[in-house]
Amino acid sequence: MATERIDKLQQFLKTSPNDCFLNHALALEYVKAGDEVLAQLHFERNLNNDPNYVATYYHLGKLLERIGQVAGAITIYEQGMNIAKTVKDMHSYNELQAAHEDLVY
Q1: Helices (H), 1-105
Q2: Among 68, 73, 85, 89, which has the minimal tally of Cβ within 10 Å of its Cβ?
Q3: CATH of the domain at 44
Q4: pLDDT value at position 1?
């Protein structure tokens, strides 16, 4: 089932390769499938295509935590908090702050 979703998202991305929603959804499918490398690739693609796509920061941070890159996760959470403030997304800011504090304190 996950393979079908991955295949379908990959097909959609052929026509819209920079679509942040599609890249994010595909990254989450790769997380579910246990493929951290491809998940990270798609999360990072989102950051390059649209640094204001706030959801990416939380999920990329969590992925980095899982693979033992704590310093990288902290940096991503901090960047995400700054972006969330800029775009006035306080819900995401609070989630990122909580994740950040769990690592730092």
Answers
A1: 2-15, 20-33, 36-49, 55-66, 70-86, 90-104
A2: 68
A3: 1.25.40.10
A4: 59
